[in-house]
Amino acid sequence: MKSVRPLFVVFEGIDGSGKTTICEAVFAHYTNAGLPVVRLREPSDGTWGRKIRELIQNDAMPGPEEQVQLFIQDRDDDVATNIRPALEGGKMVLLDRYYYSNAAYQGALGLMASRVIDENRRRGFPEPDRVYLVDLEPAEALRRVRARSGASTGRDAFEREDFQALVRAAYLSIVDGRFFILDGHMPAPSIVETVVRDIDSLLKP
């Protein structure tokens, strides 16, 4: 297996933006190239992550402050168990959602997005080398979600679109020098090509 500079890469975006598809394709590219790479997600597959997924599935999530703390518990475990060991082992880490998702989603629920980020940074979580934000209008993202899940249109769907608009605005408010904004309207292969080209440039000594 080829050696690689340990790179920490995060993929972000609203529901239906295509970020998971992009993350999976980038993972496949570097796996096929023989580079040491791992793909992870948040919520994680650990104990706290499974608890969060169960709460989401049962529509039983607590208030935004409590949500942030749940995700921090999950992240603390995931960083210690998976992320940091992979980076220290010389592997590239591709992560589908990180604390930027907390800032955006809990920010849309009324918290200050910047405060959520500051709280996570105080915990000493690893800082990513790059954050790819797949940006897409909520209406198009919701159309994709409906097509994928067969969800009906109606009042709930419009409320969801309205909420995702707040999430998108929160994302755009926290963009910093680590971010690379991707046009979610582009074909997935073109987005993957753009990401791979950028990661390759980051891997150069």
Report the principal-axis shape: globular
**DSSP strand count:** 5
Kindly report the CATH topology.
Answer: Rossmann fold
Structure classification: alpha/beta
Strand order in the largest sheet: 2-3-1-4-5
Rg, nearest Å = 17 Å
Distance between the termini: 18 Å
State the CATH superfamily name: P-loop containing nucleotide triphosphate hydrolases
Helical fraction equals 55-70%
Mean pLDDT: 93
Percentage of residues in strands: 5-15%
Any guess at the CATH architecture? 3-Layer(aba) Sandwich
Largest sheet: 5 strands, parallel
Description:
The protein has one domain: P-loop containing nucleotide triphosphate hydrolases (Rossmann fold). It contains 8 helices and 5 strands. It has helices at residues 19-32, 47-57, 64-88, 99-108, 113-122, 138-149, 155-173, 188-203, and strands at residues 8-12, 37-41, 92-96, 130-135, 179-183. It has a 5-stranded parallel beta sheet, with helices on both faces. Helix 1 (19-32) packs across helix 8 (188-203), helix 3 runs antiparallel to helix 4 (99-108) and helix 4 runs antiparallel to helix 5 (113-122). The protein is globular and about 45 Å long.
Nutshell version of this structure?
The chain is an alpha/beta fold. It contains 8 helices and 5 strands; from the N terminus they run βαβααβααβααβα. Helix content is 57%, strand content 13%.
